[in-house]
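User: I'm putting together notes for a lab meeting next week and I want to include a structural view of one of the chains we've been expressing. I don't have a solved structure, so I'd like a prediction I can at least talk through. The sequence is below, exactly as it appears in our construct file.
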Amino acid sequence: MRRFRFRLQALLDTAKQRERNVQQELARAEADHRRVWKQLAATVRVREQWEERTRENQCGPLDLPLLQEQLSALEVLRRRVAERQEAAQLAGKTVEQRRARLIEAVRSRRSLERVRERMQEDHRAEGLAREIKISDDLATVRAATARIGGNHNNAIVESK
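Assistant: Thanks for the context. Below is the predicted structure for the 160-residue chain, given as structure tokens.
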């Protein structure tokens, strides 16, 4: 039986490479997403610390210049938190986009692998059918020569 050759192997190899590339993109996007969330959490903690300090300084006699400085620092921190929240949302959307691309790449690769498996099975079935036909032909020749009373080994050689 001749060896199976998948004519779409180059396409399958390309699909596998694309899937690996998309997996790497997804990993980078997830790492970026985690980094942005850590930055957001750190900024929120700093803002909360400044809010606590501002409340503590308001308990005693008011130092107006200090209070103004703390309130302006809090405003900067609030803006930074908002910016980081937007960045976290954008990073989350990027992760979801990469995940969708990965799902599509996996589906593409799997469909090509299913085509290859079906073609391999067809190739095996064709090979078995050829072998069965050869065996049947051989059995027919032997049976015919046996009826005639001849030597079936000679009949095989002569039929070739």
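A couple of points you could mention at the meeting. The domain at 9-119 is CATH 1.10.287 (Helix Hairpins). The two ends are 19 Å apart (CA to CA).

User: Perfect, that's what I needed.
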